[in-house]
Amino acid sequence: MEWQRAADLRRLRYFVAVAECGSFTRAAAALGMEQPPLSQQIRQFEGDLGVSLFQRQTRGVVLTDIGAALLEQARTILALSEEFVATASGMARGERGHLRVGLAGAVSLLPIIPSTIRRFREAWPEVVVSFEESNTPALSAALHERRVDVAIVRPPVTDDRDLAIYPLLDEPTVAALPSGHEHAADGAIRLSMLEAEPLIIFPRELGPGFHDAILSACQNAGFTPKMGQQAPQIAATVPLVAAGLGVSVVPQSLSQIHAGGVTFHPIEEPAPKASLAIAVLRGRHVPLVTRFVAALREACREWEAGG
User: CA nearest 152: which of 266, 30, 32, 251?
Assistant: First the structure.
């Protein structure tokens, strides 16, 4: 048996059309072709398969038992073929597929990020989005290992080989103080007001850019901070402040963590910024990733312009 001819999708369509119309003449009209070539194609199909699909009658055709048994499989194959083509076309346009997004520490708390992802999913409902939350170095490794398609990171990225990195925004920072602190009732504060306090900060290797920005801002304010307990990640600084172990400087979005025992205060200049960037593996031309990167960059530009 010539399998490629027997499995020909075109002949499957002919088979289904004749079965549904009950007539070669009506099926030919529905298919937009002449009746004799259609009859010939069905006979060749039956010959390749080695079965009779139809009983020819004076006023049309009826399915044989084998034809009836094969009809649903034929319909399923055709439906899968159409779905395959639709999926391929949607992926080529960046409208379908699975998008794996990496999020660096506390990124998900910045409202513009989840709101943009939500709008993206609403615009392209056939895109499945999954998330991996980690730190910038781990997300860089995940990009290189193709475990994520795109990562929102805190630059700089130390292992940026083969990565394309695009700036997103500079988020303001706030000072986190324990309740009862002498400046807890104040509004904006100067960093120099915290000179005598233990500074709770995360390890530098988890986000060297933001870590260095905090220490540099303290230096510019005229002091070298007294280092307190290290937090295992950026978001973990807030509970440590609430426990009275010191003060911290955190991205403004962390003020959404309504931890009892902490107050958040704008910082007067010089104040550090919590920069964000989006990173992808250079040379990967995936329309869905390109579409998402463009949407997020545009949303962040608008957010900064309006902020």
Answer: 251
